[in-house]
Amino acid sequence: MSGKSITRGSVIGLNAYTTEAKLIGKVTDLEIDLADPRNTMIVIDKGTELVKLPVSAIKAVGDIVLIESEALANAVTMKKSAAETRVEAATQPAQVTTPTTTTTTTATTTATTAPTTPVTQPVTQAAPATQYVIPRCPNCGSALIYYPKYRAWYCPKCRKYVTVSPDVLSRVPRCPYCGNYLSYIEQYGKWYCYNCNRYVEI
Ligand SMILES: [Zn+2]
Ligand SMILES: [Zn+2]
Fold it and tell me: What residues flank ion ligand 2 with Cβ within 5 A?
């Protein structure tokens, strides 16, 4: 390095290239060895790791820093993440052996397969829909509405409460959610629970 002198400011932030015009990285620092200033190193950031080279490896400084290729081959590289683990690439040129500390976590994705077996209805099913009886108004024949609140059957057409015989009541479907009698809504052909305020599939 006789006759040549550089300053930190003149090299830090510059891109470092080899004499073969290969980009190494960005110069981030100069590491000065106080015990022996001749051991002062230039620190180049390669992205994932840092390369330290003796400043004697610097061939030229201008808009870029030119590094002697042979010097790079013997460079000291270190992982940026674990700066203390120095990897001495003594004989292997430029090839940095980085310890693989990344543990591959294999995500065990258990495929949740929907059961393909069809749900078979039990043979001894409670009275099919056809056996249900729709309580009707004895006066007009309209389907009656059961109001659980009053425990009474109401004819919306005649606008009056109607007494339903126990025989009919025994065959009126009940709400599976609350147990009250269901009301048949002829307009939609569905049973409705006026307690749950919802249609019920029976
Ligand atoms: Zn009626
Ligand atoms: Zn209900």
Answer: 175, 177-178, 193, 195-196
Contact predicate 162/169, CB 8 Å: no
In a domain, 28, yes or no: yes
What whole-number distance in Å separates Cα of residue 109 and Cα of residue 101?
Answer: 24
* 81, 108, 140 - which closes a domain: 81
For the entire predicted model, the pTM comes to: 0.38
Looking at the DSSP bridge assignments, the partners of residue 15 are: 26, 64
Range of the domain at 170: 132-200
Pairing label, strands 23-31, 15-18 = antiparallel
180 lies in some domain: yes
33-85: pLDDT as tens digits: 888 887 888 888 988 888 888 888 888 888 898 888 888 888 888 887 654 44
Residue that finishes a domain, picked among 60, 81, 102: 81
Q: What share of the chain is helix, strand, coil (3-state, %, to 5)?
A: 10, 30, 60
Q: Residue 167 phi/psi, 5° resolution?
A: -65, -45
Q: Which ligand is nearest to the CA of 183?
A: 2
